[in-house]
Each structure stands twice: as structure tokens, then as C-alpha cells.
Design a protein that fits this description.
It is a multi-pass membrane protein. This is Solute carrier family 2 member 2. It is found in: Cell membrane. Keywords: Cell membrane, Membrane, Sugar transport, Transmembrane, Transmembrane helix, Transport. One of its GO terms (molecular function) is transmembrane transporter activity. There is one protein chain. It contains 5 helices and no strands. It is mainly α. It has one domain. Helix 3 crosses helix 4. The mean pLDDT is 88.
Length: 91
């Protein structure tokens, strides 16, 4: 059917978000910042949320210029590198 490719792309994007671990990082961000020695970890968590919101809004405009595929591949590469650093840093 004509919906097969869009459905597969949507499923892959959802799986990529889940495998990136970002939900766990956001959930535990206050305790991560506290462990890192930040004096006010709640404000650091609010800052991370604000930065996430700002860059999500910017990505809407960037998708039109750079294209979805290239942004996806760059983002996945960045998430892979950051996941390695988070794994090493939290162990």
C-alpha cells in the first residue's frame, strides 16, 4: 500500500527516540545534575527543558532548508556519540 513507507519511517523515528534514552535522561536529569555537583539541579533541569523547546522550534524551520534525511542522519550520529559519553560518564 502507499502508506507502508511513511508508517515504517514513523516507526523507525519512534524507535530511534526510545533507543536514544532521552526519556530516561530527562526523567533522571535532576539526580544526574545533583550527582554531577550542580548546586541547584532543579534549575539545571528547567534549563535543559527550555533548551530542548528552543531547538525543537528551530528545527521546524531548519527542516525546510536542510531536508529531513540529512538532519535525521546528523541527529542520529550525534545521539550515538552522546549515548556513548553518557554511558561512560554514568558508569
Amino acid at each position: 500500500s502507499s502508506y507502508r513507507q511513511p508508517i515504517l519511517v514513523a516507526l523507525m523515528l519512534h524507535m530511534a527516540q526510545q533507543f536514544s534514552g532521552i526519556n530516561g535522561i530527562f526523567y533522571y536529569s535532576t539526580s544526574i545534575f545533583q550527582t554531577a555537583g550542580i548546586s541547584q539541579p532543579v534549575y539545571a533541569t528547567i534549563g535543559v527543558g527550555a533548551i530542548n523547546t528552543i531547538f525543537t522550534a528551530l528545527s521546524v524551520f531548519l527542516v525546510e532548508k536542510a531536508g529531513r534525511r540529512s538532519l535525521f542522519l546528523i541527529g542520529m550520529s550525534g545521539m550515538f556519540v552522546c549515548a556513548i559519553f553518557m554511558s561512560v560518564g554514568l558508569v
